[in-house]
Amino acid sequence: MALRIVSTSHIKIPVKKHLLCIVRGVVSALHIPGHISKAAVSILTPDLSHIEGLITEDVEQLQNNLSARNSSFHLDSFIRQWRQMTALRLQREDLEAKRVEVTQMMKQVVTNATGSNHARNVEEIKKEGIQLRTQLKELTKLWWEIEEIAVTRALSLPNYLHCKTPVEDNTEVYSFNPEKSNLNCLCDCTEENIKFVSHSPTAFYLRGTPASLELRWMQTFSKDWIANGYNLISAPDFVRSLVIDGCGLAFNDPKEVLSLSNIQDHGSLEKGNGLHLVGGSSLPAMVAFLTKTVIEEPFPLRLISVGRCYQPVTGILGANDLTNTVQASSARLLTVMKNCPDALFRELVFIQHQISKQLEQLNVKFRIIATAARNLEPWEQYCSSVEVYSPSSKKFIQVANVSIIGDYICRRLSIYGPHKESPGFVTAQALSVPKLESKLEP
């Protein structure tokens, strides 16, 4: 199957450069305040055309969304700021139109320079022009200040909730419990085969059978996905703050993403154009491949990237804990398709089914959980967690997940499908090798 992606700037993907964006302070890497717009290397304008409908026609649904997520977002103050920004924009446009009229009047007076009133008319028009220019300057400054607050808050709104997302509690949608699990005999997970190094509790090396298993699983699982119509790509290990913000992650939060120090040529995190280590099998890396592009064919587009994924460690680490490591070998899937809720859910079910088949072949006990709204990431509409049971820890631990994103990221990063509409995303971490190997008992 041929893959053809046309960039909106008519630059082909292999040579397309990352987009940079400079902003004042740590607010949003997606929005460039008007007073520093000339300092931007490249401007990407998120699509916020849906906001007006949200705060007028769907405000009750929006409030229910925020409540279900236990969000601290103050909706009433945001609506006031957004409407104030809109009113100022209309006033500014009105003043701009009046300035154009005054300019045209001046041209006509100069062209028809006759009579004793000519000098007086010119002086009156000049005075009116100066007054309009002063008013416009003062209004523009105020508009920029309100716009920076309102747009940044609009970009912090979480995604819509899918109608099938549980509101109260996590819900089990599938389980597999073999009579005798192979988990205890798949691998010899001894301290000699999983070596943690002293300088970091999350730096480790696999040797012997675990290392062989890692290679075998990565090859076998990825071949299964390619056989099911996924196109293998090599995504970048590093992305800019623009892409991180576009994915709904806090690019300045060390608990969410790994960032490089602010050194020369790497950009500045404080200015919103930092550089982040995410790994080629992460969602931001795959999204970076599509940012500011028009996908013409094939559609739907199914992509897979196999490699490393890097993310900050969360929680308390245990001794030789493979469930909470900075780096992991994993397979990341991304489906780009028509933004139809029912079709997106069917795609999610298909991916769930394929992951289930792969785990059933390993003959391990696992379950699939539909995640409650309060546990979703801001960019998720729906998420199912694939959890394998660990006999050693007597609990289920997530080894894969599948999420419906919809058009949330596409609207933020100018990703378009056929006919220039914003497509929908379904993504999955189809395999996290360290977490799966952590279930293997010594």
UniProtKB/TrEMBL annotation:
The record, for PANTHER family, names: SERYL-TRNA SYNTHETASE (PTHR11778)
Native species = Daphnia magna
Superkingdom of source: Eukaryota
Q: Which SUPFAM superfamilies match?
A: Class II aaRS and biotin synthetases, tRNA-binding arm
| Keywords, alphabetical | Coiled coil
Q: Does the keyword Coiled coil apply?
A: yes
Is Coiled coil found in the keyword set?
yes
Q: What is this protein called?
A: Serine--tRNA ligase, mitochondrial
* Coiled-coil parts of chain: 85-142
